[in-house]
Structures
1.
Amino acid sequence: MPHTLDPALRRALVERVRYYHELGIYDFYRREPALGHSAEIGSAAAGSVQAASSASYSGSQSELREEMSARKSAAIPVVAEDNIFEIAAPKPEYGVADPATALKLIREDLGDCTRCKLHEQGRKQIVFGVGNARAELMFVGEGPGADEDAQGEPFVGRAGQLLNNMIKAMGLRREDVYIANIVKCRPPGNRTPERDECETCSPFLMRQIAVVKPKVIVALGAVAAKNLLAINAPMSELRGRWYDFKPAGVRSNDSAWPGARLAVTYHPAFLLRDPRQKGEAWKDLQMVMKYLGIEPPKKAAE
Ligand code: SF4
């Protein structure tokens, strides 16, 4: 059974493999670890996180997602250990200057994806992402729902309408931003995507982020936030502050891109269930607007 590496160690490994690729070295072999050491990694480095993660993805209901306890909400935004070399390998979009073309290449690379079990659990289509390929602002949700699955576009149902209103209140249009999800196929019954599904799918999101190079990413909801940040904390702690974010395991065509700043707010579906939290979400968006220098339209600001 594969064990999970510490995220920092994994990133360091990915960087090292990429460095070797840049030197033209592509073949690697793996030395078997000493038995004692292997057991040590499993228990000391990853064991507690792994245990918490399995708890988080098994059968939780959507109502509980936004305010999951720290232990229940752990998630690691990393790919499975066996995928390190795949992630570090050159990608078709590398070196492509036009971001819209680069996104198309990522979509082609994704293909009729069967990489995780969501492909055989009733999805109608893959929901890749939509919006401005040069957007300064990117929203990342958890996964497609029924409407998104039917239309092939993220955030088009009732939650999507609310997201549109939130974007409009910021003085922006939906087509100004880029919108995507952690997983690109609808989990059956709108369940929370499971850890292996997030780990398998999110490298494609990382590539989309590296191509769009947003100034700000807004993580919509606890699942998105924890997958992007690998922070084990409840929403009450995740919101209201900035995080520095660089997509793991990929490189941007723009070496000058410093990465994005990331903010966390409530998922629109949660706000539909608990409209009292809309004011809190608006505070999060105002923080984003201030950073981006966006003046809200008069009506929204009043
Ligand atoms: S969720 Fe992502 S990894 Fe899984 S089958 Fe769909 S596109 Fe592929």
2.
Amino acid sequence: MKQRIVVLGGGFAGVYVARELEHLAGGRDDLHITLVSQENYFVFQPMLPEVISGTIGLVDVVSPLRRLLPHTDIHVREVEAIDVGRRVVITSPGFRPHAHEIPYDHLVVALGAVTDFRGMRGLPEHAFPFKNLGDALSLRNHIIRSLEEAAVEDDDAELRQQLLTFVVAGGGFSGVEVAAELNDFVRRVARNYRSVDPNEIRVMLLHSQERILPEMPEDLARFAEKILTRRGVEIRLNTRLSAATGVEAILGDGTRIPTRTLVSTVPAFAHPLLESLPLPKAKNGRLEVTRELNVKESDHVWSLGDCAMVPAAEGGFAPPTAQHAIREAAVVAHNIVTSIRGGKRRTFDFRGLGKMGSLGHRSAVAEIFGIKISGFLAWWMWRTIYLMKMPGWGRRLKVAVSWTLDLFLPPELVQLRVGSSRGIGREHFEPGQEVFREGDLGDRVYIIVKGEAEVLKAAQPVARLRAGECFGEMALLNETRRNATVRCAAAMDALSLPKSEFTLLSANLPELRSSFQKMADARNENSVLASKES
Ligand SMILES: Cc1cc2nc3c(=O)[nH]c(=O)nc-3n(C[C@H](O)[C@H](O)[C@H](O)COP(=O)(O)OP(=O)(O)OC[C@H]3O[C@@H](n4cnc5c(N)ncnc54)[C@H](O)[C@@H]3O)c2cc1C
């Protein structure tokens, strides 16, 4: 009977396990491989930062799973639960509102890690994560939009400063690469904005330790610092990001950096699905595996990549990198096949080939087999090695062509507007921050979830609003401008509903409209009385 092997995750770990299994199947009919992933493509993450600058096209960094894995059943759904007792994986509903169950004999958990800003004031609402293709696209669009806005807002110095300041938090590999690409991009395209002076642009890299790239030898990290600084990146060491609002990044020492673009590459967390699994986990929530990569105390559940604590040959644990995930995948596939067909199991003995980080603009740092390289040669090696590692000749060719064209052509500046509205969102405000000003156009309604706001008319406080109360409705109901200023009084989280959605809801729910109208009338009456009394 065929053994059902279900691989969860379509990243480096999952794809390379399935690939290796296809290879080991060798035409025999005893393995049935299924790969479950929430996207139908594989993302080549090391090149993701280049999407920001448009050096390579958006879809050049992804490959369709069905082409990569022609002998695997691809199941594009979100994994909702894993029932280890019944040996089934439950996936989310699709167009039809019912769940799917996929039975397995061997399960490979390769769900990676997640970006989690929970507990970090204002970051879930205002910081851009940088992990997948969607993150890269929305960041790129946001950067272009900020430049466009700066070109329009030429009379508001404060707003221009926010729009033209770009802050990246986290000086590890991905933070450094994001800062480098972002910096190159905004400075290269600035010349297309006649009213933007390149000297107004600030790109900052915040790092909590005393040097960036802690994974690299100190001299290479210092070299990277020098190169980035020379190109205009302001590096702040020993600096921790503590909170954020829509208009500023707040540092641990209380310093406020006005910005509308904050990218955070904080360390990733264990995948939340692992939490509920009755399997051994390390303190950081990752699955504990043996050196043969089966999950401890289980002979049919395997794990690898960023979601597992993989013991390293030299002691400690393997770092969460693509090069390790690929080698772990070969071990997992081999050991699954030997546990089905018999044979000797392998242990994970890979020690790492080295580390490389691109600094953009034809410069990089690398340590390969203990040899340190920096500058153009490291950059050339970075490109050659990663190009050869990309799965599929078609993608390699496209990337090579994009890189070549980038040498001669100006960077792509098109802002792709996907989706017309953000819908209901969450926003965080710090004390003293204005939510809107008297005379502004009414663009949204706010509902306070936590914290307090004060309402001011002619600079005098007239009311205080607390959790559960809403504000901003008057201008929307009466199609007028804001008749008061609202300012945050105590750190506040609020839901914000854009005008278009509010109008749609109130037009279709007469009760909602009338209760908002009553509230607006009562507020109007109170303010008339208050002004008579004074
Ligand atoms: C910007 C960036 C740059 C990097 N650069 C390098 C580099 O230069 N060199 C290097 O070695 N490493 C690099 N890394 C790290 C490397 O990419 C990761 O270590 C590697 O991707 C881990 O592979 P993984 O398969 O474990 O996780 P991931 O690649 O994160 O894959 C997880 C997969 O699981 C899927 N998934 C998650 N949840 C669900 C769910 N509920 N249902 C269904 N599917 C789900 C995801 O969609 C994804 O396909 C970089 C990472 C980033 C973010």
